[in-house]
Amino acid sequence: MKDRGQNCMDKEVSTSSLIEFGKSHINGIESFWGVAKTRLSKFKGIHKSTFYLHLKECEFRFNHRNDDLYRLLLNLINKRQLKLF
User: Closest Cα to residue 6, out of 47, 37, 41, 36?
Assistant: First the structure.
């Protein structure tokens, strides 16, 4: 990814990440990037210092897109015994 200024990033995708399943071609990074771009565009700009955290949230949501995030987060909090207050 190349930095194009304050809030713009260019992406470069290698075709080596293309995986063939039967007659269907799936490019995992393109799928993730589409979801991340849609989610991040709602912020109308993200500071460089927090971009990584926003991207990590997108990664978590993408990897668990078929799960109940509420229950998943509750389980993670209980396992680590995090104190919210």
Answer: 47
